[in-house]
Design brief:
Order of helices and strands: HEEEHEHHEHEEEEEHHEHEHEHEE
Largest sheet: 8 strands, mixed
CATH superfamily of the largest domain: Ribonuclease Z/Hydroxyacylglutathione hydrolase-like
Shape: globular
Bound molecules: zinc ion
CATH class of the largest domain: Alpha Beta
CATH topology of the largest domain: Metallo-beta-lactamase, Chain A
Helix content: 25-40%
């Protein structure tokens, strides 16, 4: 038996149309609310040079993924964990350690204890240093050794190891640092860690200007005068740099020559000794220095 609706015809039409609009509205609403996980559109990448005194820790976030390049010195563990908590970092997809010096690996074991860390990426450096050995033990199966030419992704960002020396070939751990080149959209970042002139010359010989040309440069060796030569700056032509160094540090970093060269070339200089944590953000097209109150996980 067919049940006849007792609603008059116009009311049925209005109700049907209303439901259609509601369904359409909910679909569109859901579409706009969905985070852009599957596409680069609307995704950001943030670089934080964390204020860890006279040491170094660079946080990179994009598409909800997190990577920490170096962990800072144990003397500044409070500053490191404050910095990570401030930006909502509860886990790290990757912890990259560029070379076994305390001002870069000092908090690494503590990080492995306190945070979930999925991958620990290390240079192919053999060191008898006790801290390094304990770190290898703590990282266990999460350890991956990076060699020249290796690459990995962080969200939609792509990172490549430009240079790292084979163990024992150098003797100078600073010049054996992992050199990372990051690409996100049209933006290129170069992380020089503690490398100096020798590594810069090797990079210039090994790679063309097309590879070294970057938008952001993490200045080598805390702004030391033995790094960041004018020749290297002319090849890399960064729009902005960050320098990780402590307030009134005893080394006199950053060196006046480095600052003068950067100023001559009109490069934007961000310094952790003067500015505290410095943050850059990019949508893949444009790089912006943003306030250290801003930032996020890049989604
Ligand atoms: Zn250092």
């Amino acid at each position: 038996m067919r049940v006849k609706s007792n609603l008059p015809i116009p009311w049925r039409a209005i109700l049907t149309r209303g439901i259609s609009f509601l369904v359409l509205f909910l679909l569109l609403f859901n579409l706009f609310l969905s985070p852009p996980h599957t596409t680069q559109a609307g995704e950001y990448l943030y670089i934080y040079a964390l204020d860890v005194g006279q040491s170094e820790a660079i946080l990179v976030t994009t598409g909800g993924k997190t990577m920490l390049i170096d962990s800072g010195s144990a003397v500044y563990s409070a500053e490191l964990f404050y910095g990570l908590a401030r930006y909502g970092i509860e886990r790290l997809d990757m912890l990259v350690l560029t070379h076994p010096h305390e001002d870069h690996i000092g908090n690494a074991r503590l990080l492995l204890q306190r945070l979930q860390v999925d991958r620990v990426l290390l240079p192919p450096i053999a060191s008898d240093d006790l801290a390094w050995q304990l770190l290898l033990q703590a990282a266990g199966e999460r350890t991956e050794t990076l060699y020249m030419g290796d690459s990995f992704s962080l969200g939609h960002a792509f990172f490549e190891v430009l240079l790292t020396d084979e163990p024992g070939s150098n003797g100078d751990l600073n010049e054996s640092s992992l050199i990372l080149r990051g690409v996100f959209g049209e933006q290129v970042f170069l992380f020089m860690d503690d490398a100096g002139e020798k590594t810069e010359r090797a990079l210039l010989t090994q790679y063309g200007r097309d590879v070294l040309d970057c938008d952001y440069l993490k200045v080598g060796h805390h702004g030391s005068g033995s790094a960041t030569t004018m020749e290297f700056l002319l090849a890399t032509t960064p729009a902005a740099v960050s320098i990780s160094c402590g307030r009134a540090n005893s080394f006199g970093f950053p060196h006046p020559r480095v600052l003068a060269d950067l100023e001559t070339l009109g490069v934007h200089i961000a310094r952790t000794d003067l500015d505290g944590t410095v943050v850059f953000g990019t949508d893949g097209k444009e790089l912006r220095r943003i306030s250290n109150e801003e930032g996020g996980l890049g989604q």
